[in-house]
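Q: For a teaching handout, I want to show students what a protein-ligand complex looks like in token form. Below are the inputs, and the small molecule is pyridoxal-5'-phosphate. Please produce the holo structure.
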Amino acid sequence: MTRDDALALDAEDPLAALREQFALPDGLIYLDGNSLGVLPRSTAARVQQVVTEEWGQGLIGSWNAAGWMQLPQRVGDKIATLVGAAPGELVVADSTSVNLFKVLSAALQMQQADAPQRRVIVSERSNFPTDLYIAESLARQFGCTLRLVNSPQEIAAALNADTALLMLTQVNYRTGHLHDMADLSAAAHAAGALAVWDLAHSAGALPVQLNADGADFAVGCGYKYLNGGPGAPAFVWVRPTHVSRFRQPLSGWIGHAAPFAFTPGYQPAEGITRYLCGTPSVTATAALECGVDTLLAALPLGGMAALRAKSLALTRLFTSLAETRCAGHGLTLASPRDDARRGSQVCLARDDGAYAIVQALIARGVVGDFRAGDAADGLPDILRFGVTPLYTRFVDVWDAVEHLRQVLVSGEWQQSRFNQRSAVT
Ligand SMILES: Cc1ncc(COP(=O)(O)O)c(C=O)c1O
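A: Here is the structure, written as tokens, with pyridoxal-5'-phosphate included.
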């Protein structure tokens, strides 16, 4: 594969025009859409309209006239089409962490009512820390314990008669491992447990089938593959058969059956609306809608299936180029080689220098990120490269690996300026 071959792949890519939806800085190779998605061109004008017209001129009347109150449901319905959910089943609200708190609490209430002897939450040790922290807190509250497994292969065996919940992130943020949602949800159900899924690295990155694959609860992130902007609101979905059985604990007025009745007692709304808490974040949700629309623009071109095929071609190319062109420099592949088990990222492990190598790449205009390992837990330091099929080109992958090769061959990453850690890595 030469650089010209990569350019030829871009020339024949039926999804290539989707990149024009984004305001990418000139010359930058951005491989961090799994952390913060790129700014869509439509967002600035839409946010300006919300601020100057809807807020500036419409003021309080815009809650009705501009449909502000329905934004969580309206944008939720759009996201539902990307994750195999039906309209009315998913809302946009709060952060992923907060939504996880709500769904774990509802799921544990369900199990307390149906099978109170079940007191274990099963998850992966390498799950994203906020998921583990929130689960730890709820476990304490419900008198449960958290059982963490060290590898995907150990998950099914960890489910048994004491398991209340299986809580997983569909694509592991460190390794890029894509769990089989259908198989693992079925395994959870066979053991009598419920399946709670975090879609932070899968919604907008690959086809997700929440209903068909048997998920019970799901949360997801707005600022990664949905391109909603920094700190964009997150989303929450609950299987319709569970949704009105229990209350989520954050009983704010926007989740009330009749918020404007102003009654002193809380009565939850029917359906997923009860998973709302306080006033919707209007400007941020409007920006998120622009990001979600960039994915809906792919529907006439084959939708998530077509995006997935391109994402796999990109990560396959990255993997094979890194393994051939950067061989002998201490990198090992940490993401799955098997297409069926890989999310939309390539992860490379290195015993030392991973942080500095990522910094040296960023200085060259190739933006990936670094995720710290933990020797005690057997987790290596990781260089992470996310591909976003809406805007990542084959030539970006080729150029990124060439920069990586040059950084390793020249040893420039050893310069002290690349070893100074910022707060956000
Ligand atoms: C799997 C996963 N869940 C949740 C989050 C973040 O949650 P929050 O938006 O609440 O900070 C991340 C952030 O990277 C993540 O990777």
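A: Two things your students might notice: The chain is about 35% helix and 15% strand. Residues 95-97, 128, 130-131, 169, 173, 198, 200-201, 221, 234 surround pyridoxal-5'-phosphate (CB under 6 Å).
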